[in-house]
Each structure stands twice: as C-alpha cells, then as structure tokens.
Design the sequence.
C-alpha cells in the first residue's frame, strides 16, 4: 500500500508514491538520492539528519514522508546553487574550521540556519543551547560557535571577525 | 609565534591553511559508505542476542523467508560450511562471526537477513525467532576468576578458567622494597570506565563481489584499509579471494577514534553473502547496534600506588590492573603490547623505580579494547599517574603544581630513558606548566579558592601534566598481525608542476588532504593548493597501516617529507643541468634552486618538473615521482599541561567546568588551525568519560544505556569554551620535528577534570572518585562524609 | 534488571479458602494481568503466557510456572516462573513467595515477588521495571481479592493506569 504525496524539495516539486511508514530521512536519501542528509542515530538524539520543513529545523528520522505532503523540505544541497556562492554558514564553517569529519555538518548547518533566521546576532550561550540537539564528536564545538558568529556578522552585513586561531 | 619558512601562497608548514576537503562537506557532497548505491544491491540486517550468555536451541527462519523482499537468512551453520563462522582478532584471539550454538554477550550477531530493500531486511529481522536457553553470565570481572565461574571460552581446548594473559614490566623486587621503607605511600583503586567512541557515523560496508572476474571490492568504514585487505585475503584466501582479487576502498569516514580499526562480524557476513549470491550487499549498523556490539574502549580496574618523600620527591610507582576484555581479546594493539602503551604510566616525572602488572579476563560483554581517540591505552596510564600524583600531593599537603615542578624530567635530560624502557625524545615540561599556570592565573585562583572555602563554597583546580607516546612504530617492536607498523607516501608531480600524493593512512576528519599537502609544499615549494591528496583505495595508494594512535603525522607525514626530499635531490640535479652549474653551486629556497651569489639565475620547481618530462639529462630516469616507506627510529612523545577549574553547587551537586586551559606540545606544527581544532575536539572527548560517558551493564549483562538517549555524548552545552595554547619542542628524530596531536587532549583532560573535582571536595577528606564523576556520585560522596547530616 | 516487591494485605475470607485459591493454578494465573494458562504439565508444573507493555516495548512471554512448595500446614507457597519472549527478544524470571495466617476473622496474606528481566525490555525499560512491576503486583492483588469476592477479574493490564502510576512515581507522588 502506498500513498501519493506532493512535496517540494529544495524548490522542486516531487510527486512521490511512498509507503506510509517511510521515514522522511529515507525519502530524502534513498528516493531522492540527496545523500547530504545523514543518519547518526535511531532515537532523534544526534541531529545529523536535520533538515528544514517549512522553514523549521526538524530531525528527519522522526518525521514520516507522508507528513510532508504539501510542505517544503530544504536540505543542505539546496543551500547554495552548485558552483554558486556559498551560504554564509557554509563559508563560516569552512573559514573557522567548524568541521572535521563532516558527518554532522549538514545537519548542524541546517539547524544553525533556522537559529540565525530567528536571531542573527546570538550570544555564545544562545548558540550553544541552540545547537544542543545536534551532536558533533570531532570539533569540541568551539569552532562551530565561532562559525555561527562569523556567519551572523556576514548576514548582518558587518565586518566578519578574524578566522585565525587564537591561542592563550 | 610559529615561524613559517614558506610564503602564504605556497602554504607550507605553520600556515593556518583553510581545509581543502571542506568544500564537499559543507555542500552535502561528502561521500560516505551509506551514500553508495550499486545496481542490484541487497541490504543486510542482523538479528542480535537479547541474552548475555545463552545456548541457541533453534533459529526459526521460515517466517522471515516469507517476508516480501527477503532473499536469504544466514546463520552460523551456513557460514560453518565455508569455515567462515570464526575469525581471528587483532590480538590473535578468536571471535565468532555468527554463532553455531552459544551466544556470549548481549547484542551479539545471531543471524543475518538479506533483502532487496532496507525495510524488507528489517521486517525479515523482526520475523526471525530464536529459541534460547539462558545461562548465568559472568559480568563482574572481579568474579570471573572465581573457581565457581563458568569457563566462558570452552571453545578453546584445555581452557580451564577465564584468564587471558598476564603482563608485567619493571622491577618488582626493587619496587616492593622501596614501598616497604618509603616515608609516604599513597594508594587508590580506580576504574577507567567502559566507553564507546560513538563516532557520529556508525560502521558499515558495501561488499561487491563480481563472480565473472572473481573480484571483491569492499567499500568500508575502515581506518586501516590496507591491513583489512590483507586480513580478508588471509581469512578468505581459501575460497579464492586472494589479495590481488581484493580491493578495499575507505571513502569519507564520519569519525573513527579507533572504533573503525577492528573487523566486525557484519563486514565478514556481508562479504560472505556477496560472494555467495554475486551481488553487492550493503550493511549499515544503527546506533544501538553500534553502541551495544562494536568495540568498547578502556575498562581497566587499576590499583595505583605512589611512594615518595615527605617533602614531595616521587620515588616510585606500582600499578596493578584487572582488564575486562569481554568475550574475546579483540583489542586493537600492536601484537607485542597486550596492554598497549600502558607502560608510559611512569609519567612526566624523574624517578627510576616502578612495577606494573595486568591480568586480562573474559566476561560476557562485547569484545573490544580500542582507542577512543588515544594511543593504545595511554589514557588509562595517564589517568592513573596523574590521579595518584595529586593524591600524593594531597597526602603531604603540597600544592600539586609545585609537586609537579619539583619532579618533572628536566629539559636537558632528554632523551630520557624511562624505567619501563621507553626513550622520551624531547620535552620541556616546566615551560608547559608555567605557561598554563600563567594563562589560567593559577595563584589568583588558589587565593579565590581559599576565600570560597572559608564561605563553604566548593571550587576546585585540577592539573594534568601528561606525556603521550604515539607514532607507532619502529619495526623492531611494532607490528599488527605480523605486519610492521611503517607507513608510506607516494608523490607524483605532473609535467605542469601540480601533484598528487597518496598515502597508506586514512583521514577520518583529521584534515590530511590539507596537512599532507602542506608538508610537501614545505619541502618542494609547490603550492599546497596544487597538491591533491588521496587515501583509502588499496588499488592506488601505497601500503600502510592506517590512521589511529596519532600515527599519521609521525609516520606517513615523515614519509611525505622524505619522499619530497628525494624529489628535491632529483630537482637539484635537473636544475644543475638546466643552469649548467655544479649541484654544489645551487642553493634551495622554497620553490626554486638558484646559483649561490646569483639569485636571478634560478629555476623554479615548476620549470624543473617540466624539464623532468621534456628535457631531462641523458641517463637520468624520466618523470618526477618518489615513494617512501617510513620506519620510524623511535616513537614520539607529545606532552601537555592542562588546568581545569570547576565549581560545584553544594545544594544540587552540579559540576560546572568554569575554565579549562590546555597547553600542548606536539613538536613542530603543520597547521595551527587544525592542531587547535584537534585539541578542542579531543578535550570534549576528554570531558565525556570524565563526567558523562560509561557503558553500564546490569548483573544479567543487559546494557542499560545502549542508545543515544541514555549514552550521554556531550553537546555544545556540556562542552565548555576551551582555551588552548602550545609550547614547541621539536622531535629530534622526526624529519619535520612533528609529534602528533589528535589524541593528547583526550588523554590529558580526564585527570585534570577529576583532579579539579576531587580538589573541590578535598576539605571533606574525599581523595578519589571514579570517572565519570556525576552529580550523583558527588552527592553520595558528600553524604557519606556527613555533609548533609544537619 | 531486578525488582523486588513485598506486600501484606488483608482479605475477608477464611484462611483455607484463600489457601485453596492461591494454590490453584487455574485461579491464580488469571489474577496476573495479561497472563493465561495454556497447558497443565502435572500437578506442580504448567505452562502459560504473559503479555506486557512497557512504554514503547510490547513483550509476550511464554514459559513454565512451577510450584516449588505448597505447604498446607504452614500455609507457605513458593512459585517460580521462567519465561522467554516468544520472539526471542528477551526473558523474565519471577519468584513468588506467599505466606498467610488468620487475622481478625479473615486472612492476612504476605506476598513477595522477585522479578528479573533480560533482553530488550531490560535495555529500554530498565527505569520502568520497578514501577511497572509494582503496578502489575497491585493489580494482581486487586484481582485476587475480586476473585475471592466472586467479582470479575480484569485479565489485561491496564496500560493507562500503569503509566499514571509511573508518572506519579517519577514526580515524587509515590502512593
């Protein structure tokens, strides 16, 4: 038994026949082959699968594909046109060494996108709490915080802070 | 300040070059194992044991085979026909791939379901029913040697108990005599908990066997692809998969930390199934499988003792370990080192008497003994020495910083011969601690602490001054399954002066694509951005032992420098030919050779390389390529001085890490930005076991926190803002003076945190708490001391 | 994962009636919420099934139940149950001790129950096991009383009530 859904993914409308139990993350990865969204756990704990659903960051491992009928999904692949300019967050993560293995990065960036849309000048504490639903095992978070601040400055049209490492 | 020899445009050592690999990761174009989709690919899911110890009476697969999409269910009996139901571990023990009659730990693989889709495989898994006869398991390692304990490895002929091996080092008689007569002896019993690397990407593979060409391509989350290829050939050579027929590809890896070194049963089953059905088979474990069945780290019970004088001179140490290895010894250690590098536990201190002993035992828990971002059991060693050093300082009422300064090995005493036989290459421990104390404002903090104590507030300051031992290792002593632990680099420079370099290592986030390019840029003057780095494909890369134990820079990084120097020697010959001068008349500066005294008479490296293909001297080999297999003469010994400040709320017992200063000395620095990033990440993986992480088993062998809901990986909220810095003491024996850094912070942070917490609680006579130190543990300790009585 | 619960309760029935009821497998088993008797092997051994729901985890156990002791002189009964999940996802053992004596014209019953669970239920439900066992036990007692009074016995475990009692437990309102 399948159900037809119409879902907009990164601006393109897809009409898909899906099993009612199909998870959104599997629809994104397996059906649409958008493998930038990752799976890191099975309990909605790690946030590697974070995408935007109608602009709100959600963990796509805990949403059914059928729930996205008539809605808009945004994944990391849609953040910047291929070969086009990067989103300030993408740039911020690269410039500030906000990633190591890259596995949590797409989910982290999508989460931060919503964060900055609500508050484009967050404090360190607001950033830390804001990304506390996304686990990173490599970076120790310092440079993710730095990347988000950098992206915020860029989005506000201000001068971006130095990206050089600071040592005591 | 780090001095760079090359311009920013060349981007050699010392430049904080932005990472070359990031472009794909930030745009969702990383290529991880689960992203691979091949035509006709089948999916595998695994039925696992709910019991820690049970006989398998019957596996009912009929219902599973009826599930639409399910093509096969594989059991141990099926693998037995091909003699693939057992495999060797890295420590030459044996491990079941699938059981034929007994399960030995909860979540052990019992059967594999193969289906045309991921969902069908999971449905099939649910439909398999297994009848078990549970038995009373051995969970507590302290009871595993009881005569009444069942002999778990009855598969081993003549095995009469659960003892695996005994290891010892040092002078027992001398140490015992010292402890007999020493003025001060302190002793603590410590547990270094069983933890899990929990890389955000779990383990998995796609095994793709091509029946027509009798060829296996194995895409796999492995930190050591070449070694894996050899292991596959050794295990499956008898069915025709000889080494030239096997290609292992390790694509982008979502974090490794040691957890992707071992061979897990799932990989072997996937290969076996692909071999039998001639189709690609994908197996990706989920998080609970990852936490519950993949290799754990640590689980050492250590009795640590220190002897010294009343004025603070350390005279000797004694360590007795009970190692819980679970069902089999599947540690990832060099063959001759069953306890890894634990014998670094004498620490950064100048004394000559020690004795260490370890007994390893079997229990009904998952096998393992991997690193968790540490070089072969160094974390255990450092925790033991740094905790017991603080305990000693407390006993004699001396400031732990003063005590350390008093006992450090002096800068001028390197190379220093440790009582367990290591030769520390270099270090300046006094300078490191001095810098950390200045950065944190140590004197001021001690004054603040005294004021707070007077008011009944709990504040603690903890120090850890550790010595790491990495870069395994010299072939004289180091091998894995007999293969020596060298590593390799192959550099090919194309006619237009751009290069590709390949390595036997495999990055899992360390940034090799950037740092290796910087090493070559440093040596050859070719801009790092024009040097492509490739790793992880055994068909193209030179043989190497892989990336773990902070060994990439010490081994493959050295290989890159030496291979580049071979090319520079060739370049000198070509330049001499082109400039019509003698080689001795040439001088090198990054990017060109010029004639001494006539700097405008020069040939750039690009011109020289072009000539190597278009106009090389007669009799010289054409082309511009070099390979080097580097066998290190010694290990490298990075060090660090860490200071942690904690505040504990006496009402809620909540522990807050207020500040953490980490001064690392990893020798010469290739990329400061990446080194700092590695330190940040390692520190968060240090606070993790210190305060949050532990795999907990109940008396029946049930894991009680086998998901991310319960296994507490620190988030950005638990992780404080790390303050980092460095001192630089180059390694004298390493071609570029580097030492390796990825793991130092994970090794050094836990004792700094534990020491800070115990320091905060010391007014109540608390001298030790086992990590992870949770608010509940603090509460219990304070309650025992009667703090809440009134 | 282990939970031990003991309880003393009073019923307004003569000792011998209560004794007869508690030692009769057909009567006692139906008092266990979610349990049913499937086969009598002999006088002391029989087979049954128990269905339990702990939050998201549903488990159906099949197993054997045996009377280890039925001493009509001292009115002491010991019963052991050992079950495995019918899907092979775990198991549970239960040891039940009961003693009774006359009191105020009725009977006072002392029961203690020791439950050990293994497998998935233990993994995911470890925090709930004690609370859930307490609830099962309370319902067992209430069923047992109703049975003696000739009232209807509720066969299935009422999950709603169970969650309610657990939530109360979590927030400190332990009854």
Sequence:
């Amino acid at each position: 038994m399948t159900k037809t859904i119409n879902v907009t993914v990164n601006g393109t409308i897809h009409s898909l026949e899906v099993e009612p139990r199909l998870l959104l993350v599997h629809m994104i990865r397996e059906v649409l082959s958008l493998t930038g969204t990752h799976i890191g756990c099975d309990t909605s704990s790690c946030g590697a699968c974070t995408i935007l659903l109608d602009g709100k960051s959600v963990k796509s491992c805990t949403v059914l594909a059928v729930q996205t009928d008539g809605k808009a999904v945004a994944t990391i692949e849609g953040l910047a046109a291929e070969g086009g300019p990067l989103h300030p967050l993408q740039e911020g993560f690269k410039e500030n060494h906000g990633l190591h293995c890259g596995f949590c990065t797409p989910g982290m960036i999508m989460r931060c996108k919503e964060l900055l849309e609500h508050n484009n000048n967050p404090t360190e504490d607001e950033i830390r709490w804001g990304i506390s639903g996304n686990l990173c095992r490599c970076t120790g978070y310092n440079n993710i915080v730095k990347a988000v601040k950098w992206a915020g400055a860029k989005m506000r049209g201000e001068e971006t802070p130095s990206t050089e490492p600071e040592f005591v | 300040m780090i001095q760079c020899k090359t311009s920013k445009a060349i981007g050699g050592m010392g430049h904080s070059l932005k990472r070359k690999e990031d472009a794909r990761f930030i745009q969702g174009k990383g290529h991880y194992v689960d992203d691979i989709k091949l035509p006709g690919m089948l999916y595998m899911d695994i039925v696992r044991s709910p019991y820690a110890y049970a006989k398998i009476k019957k596996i009912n697969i009929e219902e599973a085979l009826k599930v639409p999409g399910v093509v096969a269910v594989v059991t141990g009996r099926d693998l037995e026909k091909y003699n693939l139901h057992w495999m060797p571990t890295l420590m030459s023990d044996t491990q079941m791939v699938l059981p034929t009659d007994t399960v030995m730990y909860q979540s052990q693989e019992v059967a594999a379901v193969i289906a045309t889709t991921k969902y069908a495989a999971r449905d099939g898994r649910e439909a398999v029913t297994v009848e078990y006869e549970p038995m009373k398991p051995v969970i507590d390692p302290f009871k595993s040697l009881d005569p009444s304990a069942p002999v778990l490895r009855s598969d081993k002929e003549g095995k009469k108990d659960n003892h695996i091996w005994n290891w010892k080092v040092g002078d027992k008689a001398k140490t015992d005599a010292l402890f007999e007569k020493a003025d001060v002896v302190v002793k603590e019993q410590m547990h270094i908990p069983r933890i899990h690397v929990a890389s955000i990407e779990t383990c998995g593979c796609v095994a793709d066997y091509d029946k027509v060409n009798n060829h296996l391509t194995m895409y796999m989350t492995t930190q050591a692809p070449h070694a894996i290829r050899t292991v596959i050939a050794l295990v499956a050579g008898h069915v025709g998969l000889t080494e030239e027929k096997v290609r292992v590809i390790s694509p982008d890896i979502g974090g490794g930390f040691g957890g992707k070194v071992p061979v897990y049963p799932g990989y072997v089953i996937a290969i076996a199934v692909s071999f039998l059905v001639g189709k690609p088979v994908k197996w990706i474990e989920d998080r609970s499988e990852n936490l519950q069945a993949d290799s754990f780290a640590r689980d050492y019970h250590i009795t640590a003792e220190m002897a010294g004088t009343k004025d603070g001179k350390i005279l000797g140490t004694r360590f007795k370990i009970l190692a819980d290895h679970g069902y089999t010894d599947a540690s990832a250690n060099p063959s001759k080192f069953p306890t890894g590098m634990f014998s670094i536990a004498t620490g950064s201190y100048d004394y000559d008497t020690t004795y260490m002993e370890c007994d390893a035992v079997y229990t009904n828990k998952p096998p393992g003994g991997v690193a968790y971002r540490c070089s072969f059991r160094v974390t255990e060693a450092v925790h033991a020495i740094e905790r017991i050093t603080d305990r000693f300082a407390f006993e004699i009422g001396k400031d732990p910083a003063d005590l350390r300064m008093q006992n450090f090995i002096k800068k001028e005493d390197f190379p220093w011969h440790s009582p367990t036989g290591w030769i520390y290459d270099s270090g300046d421990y006094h300078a490191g601690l001095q810098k950390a104390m200045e950065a944190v404002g140590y004197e001021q903090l001690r004054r603040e602490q005294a004021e707070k104590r007077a008011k009944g507030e709990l504040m603690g300051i903890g120090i850890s001054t550790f010595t790491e031992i990495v870069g395994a290792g010299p072939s004289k002593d180091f091998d894995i399954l007999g293969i020596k632990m060298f590593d390799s680099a192959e550099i090919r420079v194309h006619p237009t002066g751009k290069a590709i370099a390949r390595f036997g290592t495999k990055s899992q986030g360390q940034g090799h694509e950037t740092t290796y390019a910087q090493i070559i840029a440093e040596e050859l003057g070719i801009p790092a951005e024009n040097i492509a780095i490739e790793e992880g494909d055994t068909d193209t890369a030179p043989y190497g032992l892989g990336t773990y134990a902070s060994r990439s820079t010490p081994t493959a990084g050295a290989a890159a420098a030496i291979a580049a120097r071979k090319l520079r020697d060739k370049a000198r010959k070509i330049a001499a030919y082109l400039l019509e001068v003698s080689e001795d008349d040439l001088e090198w500066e990054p990017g060109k050779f010029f004639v001494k005294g006539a700097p405008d008479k020069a040939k750039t490296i690009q011109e020289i390389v072009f000539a190597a293909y278009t106009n090389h001297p007669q009799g010289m080999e054409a082309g511009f390529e070099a390979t080097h297999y580097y066998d290190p003469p010694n290990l490298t010994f990075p060090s660090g001085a860490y200071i942690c400040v904690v505040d504990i709320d006496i009402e809620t017992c909540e522990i807050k890490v207020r500040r953490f200063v980490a001064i690392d000395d990893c020798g010469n620095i290739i990329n400061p930005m990446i080194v700092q990033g590695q330190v940040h990440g390692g520190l968060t993986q240090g606070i993790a076991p210190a305060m949050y992480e532990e795999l907990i088993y109940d008396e029946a062998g049930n894991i009680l926190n086998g998901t991310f809901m319960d296994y507490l990986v620190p988030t950005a909220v638990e992780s404080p803002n790390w303050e980092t810095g460095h001192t630089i003491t180059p390694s004298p024996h390493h071609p570029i003076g580097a030492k390796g850094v990825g793991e130092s912070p994970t090794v050094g942070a836990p004792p700094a945190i534990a020491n800070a917490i115990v320091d905060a609680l010391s007014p109540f006579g608390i001298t030790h708490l086992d990590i992870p130190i949770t608010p509940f543990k603090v509460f219990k300790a304070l309650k025992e001391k009667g703090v809440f009585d009134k | 994962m282990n939970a031990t619960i003991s309880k003393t309760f009073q019923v307004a029935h003569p000792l011998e009636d209560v004794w007869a009821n508690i030692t009769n497998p057909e009567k006692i088993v139906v008092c266990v919420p979610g349990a049913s008797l499937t086969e009598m092997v002999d006088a002391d051994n029989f087979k049954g099934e128990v269905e339990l729901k702990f939050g998201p985890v549903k488990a159906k156990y099949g197993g054997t139940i045996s009377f280890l002791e039925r001493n009509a002189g001292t009115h002491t009964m010991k019963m052991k149950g050992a079950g495995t999940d019918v899907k092979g996802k775990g198991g549970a053992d239960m040891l039940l001790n009961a003693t009774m004596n006359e009191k105020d014209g009725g009977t006072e019953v002392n029961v203690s129950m020791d439950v050990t669970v293994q497998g998935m239920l233990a993994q995911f439900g470890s925090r709930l096991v004690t609370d859930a066992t307490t609830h099962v036990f309370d319902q067992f007692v209430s069923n047992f009383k109703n049975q003696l009074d000739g009232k209807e016995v509720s066969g299935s475990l009422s999950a709603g009530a169970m969650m309610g009692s657990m939530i109360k437990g979590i927030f400190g309102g332990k009854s």
About this structure: Chain B has a mean pLDDT of 97. Chain B touches chain C at residues 50-52, 106, 126, 128-132, 134, 698-704, 706-707 (CB under 8 Å). The radius of gyration of chain B is 28 Å. Residues 475 and 484 of chain B are 5 Å apart (CA to CA).
